[in-house]
Amino acid sequence: MKNKIIEKIKAIYYRIHCKRALIGKSSEYLDPNDRENKSYEQIKKAYETLRGLFTDEKHKFYISGGVAPYLLLNQESGRTHDDIDIVVRMEDMSYFRQALQEANLYKQEYDSRTFARDGIDYGFETVINGVPVGIYPFIYKDKKVIQHTYDPYTRQCKIKELEVEQLSDYVMTYTGLDGQQYDTMSMEYIRFSKSKTSRPKDIADIEKVDTYGIREDVYNRLHMFRQTQDIKAERLAFIKGIEEKNATINSFNACATERKPVSREEK
């Protein structure tokens, strides 16, 4: 009974501070057994909520995955979806965390920083209108995109690297058929990544990407990303602990060497 009252208070708070969201107990928590069953209408509603939450244009978020071409075409996908993944610049992560905290939508237990104690931000997840939303940081430097991701179900912390000619090979601002501006992962990269699988949903998504159109020169210069890390957060914390312990030992040994007693011969 007490929990139900608390959840109702949370829902009222959210409606006041972020009027577009409708958060309840069933939609607040990630359920590993409740996946790949979100309608396109649910996905689009959650996306509109994100746009209402993240209003500062200086901090862009780019929607990734198969839902992007349907948004641009203003069409129903005709299939169910798992979640929404968005990618953002690493330096903007504090803005997105704060915005979700203010809307009472941030949960520390879904944040990679809670478990990965290596000082690296792999992102976090939340739930909006019953739809899981992953927010993952990337770094762009020297014609390379370094993308971090985090799986809150398994606590896997991943890093992949992608060579690009320019950042717009990876993320872009598009004008949808409805006249609205959309920041998404590039159609070229979405098509390229989905072309490496043979799942029916990916084939259908590729058709929609082709319907919207791609830049052939960009598509032809894309390369497959290189996975450089895939490790559990707890393991990272363990490795970090070992590194800190070794650093302490090395520091102690260095000090001991400096304080070595002077021999009679040296005198």
CATH fold description: Beta Polymerase, domain 2
CATH uppermost class:
Alpha Beta
Gross morphology: globular
What level of helicity do the residues show? Answer: 40-55%
Name given to the CATH architecture: 2-Layer Sandwich
- Structural class call reads alpha+beta
* Straight-line N-to-C gap: 81 Å
Strand element count: 9
Q: Outline the biggest β-sheet.
A: 7 strands, mixed
Radius of gyration: 23 Å
Low-pLDDT residue spans: 2-27
Element pattern in H and E:
HHHEHEHHEEEEEEHHHEH
**Average pLDDT across residues?**
84
Short description:
The chain is an alpha+beta fold and 267 residues long.
Using brief descriptors, characterize the structure shown.
single chain; Beta Polymerase, domain 2; 10 helices; disordered N terminus
How would you characterize this protein structure?
The longest helix is centred in the last third of the chain and has 26 residues, at 233-258. The protein has a single domain, classed as Beta Polymerase, domain 2. Helix 4 (67-73) packs parallel to helix 8. The chain has helices spanning 2-17, 25-28, 40-53, 67-73, 93-102, 112-115, 187-194, 200-212, 216-221, 233-258; strands at 62-64, 84-89, 124-128, 131-141, 144-151, 156-163, 171-175, 181-185, 226-232. The protein contains 10 helices and 9 strands. The protein is globular and about 70 Å long. Residues 2-27 have low confidence and may be disordered.
